[in-house]
Amino acid sequence: MGKESDAPRRSDLTGGVKSPRPHRAVRLGGWLDERLGLSAFAYPVPRHANTVAYTLGGITLGSFVLLVASGVYLTQFYEPSPARAHASVVEITQGDVGSVIRSVHFWLSSIFVATLVLHLARTFVTGSFKRPREATWITGVALLALGGGLLFTGTILKWDQEALEALEHNSEIARLFGALGFWFADDFSRSVSLLLRDYIAHVSILPTIAVFLLGTHLFLVKRHGVSPVPWGDAAQVRERARQEERHPFTTHLWRILYWTLVVLGLALVLAALRPAGIGPEAVEGIEITKPPWYFLWLYPFENWFGVKALAIVPGVLLAGLAALPFLDRGDERDPRRRRAWVALATLVVLAWGALTVYAYVTEPVAHVAG
Amino acid sequence: MRAFFATACVLVLALAPLPLAFATGGDEMEGPQTPDALALQALAVLEQGLSGDLAAEKLEEALASKGAGEVSPLFLRDARRALARGDEAAAVGFLRRAFPPDDQHVVGATLRPALGANGFTAGAIGGLLIVLAGAGLLRRRAADRVHPHAVARGVRS
């Protein structure tokens, strides 16, 4: 105590003037930015971008990152061969850590779907797909389709009864497409099983395309900025956007980070309360399961129109979504001024809910087995 | 221009199912199922705890089917009678015996791990994460109110 150090004090280095020293995280950010140019990704965001509704896209991205991380762990123990796939999933499910990670992966996929659909709904309601954001919307719709592909291929990997039935549907749809469905045909590659190709699609092909599309989507969000609050007529919306405060991008990033941690926490709690199970080893020639909840709405269509409906209905829905910015082209973003479109969307949502409940309560029916 | 886009969109929607015109498959709904497959479906339906009526329907179809199979019609009839008197356990027993002994027909049940120490730990960590992240979100919200981070006024719409 009382002994002076020879080392220069900070106030000496600054000529006796005490300047507030930035927080350690800020200094680390500055150090990284100087070398990596991370600030090139940043842009000021309007105040409303930090509300939950406008953070849904970021939460979906956070869920995707968590899915990739938990998926990487699972690939270390999963064997994508028809002879061993089911047994390896059983081993993962019986393991202490593997069981939790698999359950977290399972629940994250459901949370991912929920936030993705809510993000889409928010974008629709607030008219955020309108000029000049048409391409942002279309890449979002493509990401939705890709998300569906990831969920479907993931369902098959379990290689239980549900998985085999999903694969049989996949093969049947491929046959419907004739030569165009060649990639899903058993004889496309005699040395690599369809299961292994599905696995490659799940862990490599689809995520690669998703990253490319995601990069484009995020670039376009930065290019056009966060869409304005939609209330009022077009002039009011423009004026409010001009007046609104803008915050540093990091304020938005922090919220996305915190929400991603909430998602992870939720997935862990759900994994503890209801661990992901695995169905029985598949028996060919029977059809006794129904699809996971996010595909359940398609089940009645298959009952009514056969397996063709599984190709037509999602195709028409996605084409309709992609065409939306070119159909609802007016300046108005306020949902109260786009009542016809909002009514149509409400009908679609109600139909989705009703079809899901109807499919849940009906008995399973054989469509492709036999 | 608007009419062009509308026409293009209608065309895209109309042509979306076009590849199905080249379909070569898709008639699976009309194809008859073998007695083996139908009996397996009945067994699977019962093993999964689904409707006994559905299983009975499958058995009726299996018995009415003219296709060749390895499944024993005698045991199928016994299973059907058991179902008629509501004895699903007996029906499962008969159905198991209806197949050749070396047949891999057992459907099994869903394996779901019980909540053990690992599950409890995961749940506790999850709960803690939610609380901490929730606190972080509230802190940021409060910080925005007390010390606005505003850097500029917006210009885009």
Secondary structure elements and pairings:
The complex is a heterodimer of chains A (370) and B (157).
Chain A: H1 10-13, H2 24-36, E1 45-46, H3 56-75, H4 85-94, H5 96-125, H6 134-157, H7 161-176, H8 194-224, H9 234-243, E2 245-247, H10 249-273, H11 299-305, H12 309-327, H13 339-361
Antiparallel strand pairs in A: 1-2
Helix pairs in contact in A: 3-5, 3-10, 4-5, 5-6, 5-10, 6-7, 6-8, 6-12
Chain B: H1 2-15, H2 35-47, H3 52-64, H4 73-84, H5 88-98, H6 117-146, E1 152-153
Write up what this structure looks like:
The complex is a heterodimer of chains A (370) and B (157). Chain A is built from 13 helices and 2 strands, in the order ααβαααααααβαααα. By secondary structure, chain A is mainly α. Chain A has a two-stranded antiparallel sheet with strand order 1-2. The longest helix of chain A has 31 residues, at 194-224. Chain B has 157 residues and is mainly α. Chain B is built from 6 helices and 1 strand, in the order ααααααβ. Chain B has helices at 2-15, 35-47, 52-64, 73-84, 88-98, 117-146; one strand at 152-153. The relative contact order of chain B is 0.08. The chains are: A mainly alpha (370), B mainly alpha (157).
List keywords for this structure.
heterodimer, A: 370 residues, mainly alpha, two-stranded antiparallel ribbon, 13 helices, globular, disordered N terminus, B: 157 residues, 6 helices, 59% helix, 1% strand, flat
Quote the distance from N terminus to C terminus of chain B: 23 Å
Model regions low in confidence, pLDDT < 50 over at least 5 residues of chain A: 1-5, 7-17
Number of helices of chain B: 6
Q: Spell the H/E element sequence of chain A.
A: HHEHHHHHHHEHHHH
User: How far is it from the N-terminal to the C-terminal residue of chain A, by CA?
Assistant: 88 Å
| Global structural class of chain B | mainly alpha
Shape of chain B: flat
Q: From the alpha-carbon coordinates, what is the Rg of chain B to the nearest angstrom?
A: 30 Å
Q: Which chain pair shows the most residues in contact?
A: A-B, 84 and 75 residues
* Largest sheet composition of chain B: none
Give the structural class of chain A: mainly alpha
Strand content bin of chain B: under 5%
Q: How big is the Rg of chain A?
A: 25 Å
